[in-house]
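Usage

Read records sequentially. Each one opens with the input sequence:
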Amino acid sequence: MVKRISVYIDGANFYGGLTSINKRFTDTKFDFENYINYISGKDNLVRINYYNALVKKKINEKIWRKQNDFFDRLRKIPKCKVTLCTRKSRLNILGEEYHTIKGDDISLALDMIEDCYNNKFDKAIFISGDGDFADLLNRIKKKGKEIEICYFEGCIAGVLLKKADSKRLINKKTANRFFWRGKKK
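and closes with the structure output:
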């Protein structure tokens, strides 16, 4: 039986994992299209779901522009849905401003649950290391769905690995292999 596959990418978690390998690595230079085709088999792919938030233009216009180009590139991938959430300003204990992403995890969880209960996939490929998703993966597995987790070493909650039917490490070799080099002419 051919398995229908949906991919769910926690974009902020992916960025953190990639920079943990090498501070110069960035998600804007990762070839998600070829990586997803490699891990899923292009013919079995139902949908790619990507979740993140855009840096505010007034905070860093250069990063904002790079992210916009990156999200536009993702939107051009067949079957890819990009969900952009919001960034909220916060103050740390020293009164310094920092920003957090709000709504990405809940959007990912709701989409995965809805897709599962509407029987839109047989296998979910989950790209995140966030342990907060453990209960979500339990629910998906209880509905008889298969879970594969793609993760970065040192950036994965052990509880998630226990939920997976299969696991795939994203390491420096993977990052180099799927470094985005732009369109081929």
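Summary fields computed downstream for this record:
- Helices lie at 11-21, 32-40, 61-75, 104-117, 134-142, 158-163, 172-177.
- The chain has seven helices and seven strands.
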